[in-house]
């Protein structure tokens, strides 16, 4: 690794750039008249709080074409990632391979909402074996073999984890990575 | 990086696992009655040896849905990659993002011909900023910021490059990486 290059950041998509949980809430409201409450999700995966008769319904929904295409952008993500992109070498890294139907949707979503991110800096993978300096992710499993700076982006499922440097929103990312 | 884990290898797809050049040759024969000779490609990109009136025809073909779906597998690639997979942590890493329409084809092709490679170990990217120990690739641009062992897989376009450790085929990869 050259010491003169810009620091590299890998930024996750789901629940970091894209509001996947909002989509789940809307989907269960519309298709099952079932209200999922954010308050019930504290420290839990969505599958853990779904009514028993719906507990295996989540994965097929995620596999549907289009699921990832219309997700809302997380508040302030566009502005902060744009500013990070000026200062750092920013990569968007999503474990998209788990859902074969998600790749084209995710690509189109990124091109729409983050058009300044070049195709060269988009990574769809499984294990995030990335040679970067900073990783922003809501899943601690992605930090396991990573030796750089780990920023755990708050999502309900990780609310009870307290052994990582945490960022609760994009303003907090900006405060940590853009202030100096 | 843990010192106890298996060594990680990143293996490229086009012209390493998949015979993209064979597809180009067939395509120009069928659609343009034009014969592309491997002998003319020594040290050159295909675009450099196409007749002038066809020189801008290549990119649209690569962008066609299906282009990457029926590529032939390179000789011995399946057997050797299977054996590597037993000894190493094998990742398939393709700069697929350059061609938005290639992602699903490449995914399906890998699932068909290399079904033992889990989705967790497939990476579609642009720049190959990977935390691996060994990289097998036909493009030296992918070696630029990589500090591990680089194996340049012979393809006509790289024939004149001589400052990298070279493997001419999958049997030579086996001899280097499976003999000890």
From TrEMBL, chains A, B:
UniProt xrefs under Gene3D superfamilies: Deoxyribonucleotidase, domain 2, HAD superfamily/HAD-like
Active-site residues annotated for this sequence: 12, 14
Q: Which GO terms describe its biological process?
A: pyrimidine deoxyribonucleotide catabolic process
**Any one GO molecular-function label of the UniProt entry:** 5'-nucleotidase activity
Family the entry assigns:
Belongs to the 5'(3')-deoxyribonucleotidase family.
Q: What is this protein called?
A: 5'(3')-deoxyribonucleotidase
Q: Which organism is it from?
A: Mucilaginibacter pineti
């Amino acid at each position: 690794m050259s010491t003169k290059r810009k620091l590299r950041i890998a930024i996750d998509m789901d629940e970091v750039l894209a509001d996947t949980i909002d989509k789940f809430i809307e989907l269960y409201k519309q298709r099952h008249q079932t209200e999922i409450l954010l308050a019930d999700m504290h420290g839990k995966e969505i599958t853990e709080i779904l009514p028993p008769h719906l507990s295996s319904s989540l994965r097929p929904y995620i596999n549907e074409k289009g699921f990832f295409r219309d997700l809302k952008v997380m508040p302030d993500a566009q502005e902060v990632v744009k500013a990070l992109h000026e200062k750092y070498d920013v990569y968007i890294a999503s474990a998209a391979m788990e859902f074969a139907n998600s790749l084209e949707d995710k690509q189109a979503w990124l091109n729409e909402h983050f058009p300044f991110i070049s195709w060269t800096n988009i990574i769809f993978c499984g294990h995030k074996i990335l040679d970067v300096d900073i990783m922003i992710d809501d899943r601690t499993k992605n930090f396991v073999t990573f030796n750089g700076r780990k920023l755990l982006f708050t999502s309900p499922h990780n609310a009870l984890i307290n052994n990582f440097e945490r960022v609760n929103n994009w303003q907090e990312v900006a405060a940590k990575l853009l202030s100096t």
